[in-house]
Amino acid sequence: MRLRNLKPLTTEYLEEIGFVWHTDEDESAYIADAVLEITEAEAEAYADAANALYDMYVEAGEYVITNELFHELNIPFNLVDAIKESWENDVHWHLYGRFDLAGGIDGAPIKLLEFNADTPTSLFETAIIQWALLKYNGLDDTAQFNGLYEALVDNFKRLVTLEESVEGFDQHYEGWKILFSSIAESSEDENTTRLLQHIADEAGFHTEFATVDAVAFDEEEGIFVEEENYELWFKLIPWEDIAIEEGDLAMILTRIMENHKAIILNPAYTVMFQSKAFMKILWDLFPGHPLLLETSFEPLQGKAQVEKRAFGREGANIRIMDASGETIEATDGAYEGHKPIYQEYVQLPVDAEGRSYQAGVFYAYEACAVGFRRGGKILDDFAKFVGHVVV
Questions:
Q1: What confidence tens digit (pLDDT) does each residue in 64-114 have?
Q2: Is 168 helix (H, G, I), strand (E, B) or coil?
Q3: How far is CA 16 from the centre of its chain?
Q4: β-strand 327-330 against 340-344: which pairing, if any?
Q5: Which of 43, 189, 219, 220 could pair with 182 as two cysteines, CB 3.0-4.6 Å apart?
Q6: Domain count within the chain
Q7: Range of the domain at 181
């Protein structure tokens, strides 16, 4: 574990660029004043792992849909048609996601923990803050595995080209508009969404922002704000939350897609990938794969393991157990009602102070960036973001 201490970014600078969630509830800084040194080989290994895992997710997604395994993934019934519609039509393009990975440092093998495919956080931190931290300290700001911003610019263009190349985007663009929405109560969600809006502007789209309560939905006419109609809608709102809390809206959005009135980002099929139960499907299809951890719907026998909920965030409702089934550490939370899964336990890399590090590798058409979270055995809402430098 190689850490390099740096001068922290000032709160004034962070707030000036819209990063207002810089201080945790205990008044400690959310952004670490150090970066993790990784080698070029380690960066390449993270990228190769994410690329390989995405291909596996696509193969497994086809298997889930063909065999109607939505219940096994704890997916609400009112999302099934939306998943199928978005999966079968290439216009429903996956914009970006984030793989959470253990290992990858000091020779530890890389292992998949989960895939935040629908509404991944730490986008602002990864694309902007860790780059700014190097620049602020007079370091080479290109010495990172961090092309997230540029990858998103190109992937927005692929919404139109639907091809690897973005050449010809201008010829086929024809003034498409994207509406960006988040909930009204979260400045973190809003400013992350506005960053994505800014990137789409740079890609060449006409964009607007509106909190979701200001958006109107009609299955025959599409998605509106006042009288303005939008062909694309990005929502930083989890699909499963829409299905559970706004069931009628989930059905309307399905009809909107079926009637070809709008494209929704991220597409509905990403809720399959988002489900932690999906990792049991991966294990069934790729048993023993070096990037995977054994995962089951029942407790594993004779192995240290982690109990997770199919849907959950910020380290809530996690339980780590030893090989005899005794609880080592656990958290409570709001996701107890979701289906449990059991994943083989793997130790995260730790520093000299015993703090754990988890890699978050962003994927936007291909692996494009890494950032790290630091905390205890369970990375909860008080985990810190740690940037990196390639040495």
A1: 999 999 999 999 999 999 999 999 999 999 999 999 999 999 899 999 999
A2: coil
A3: 25
A4: unpaired
A5: 189
A6: 1
A7: 77-109+143-272
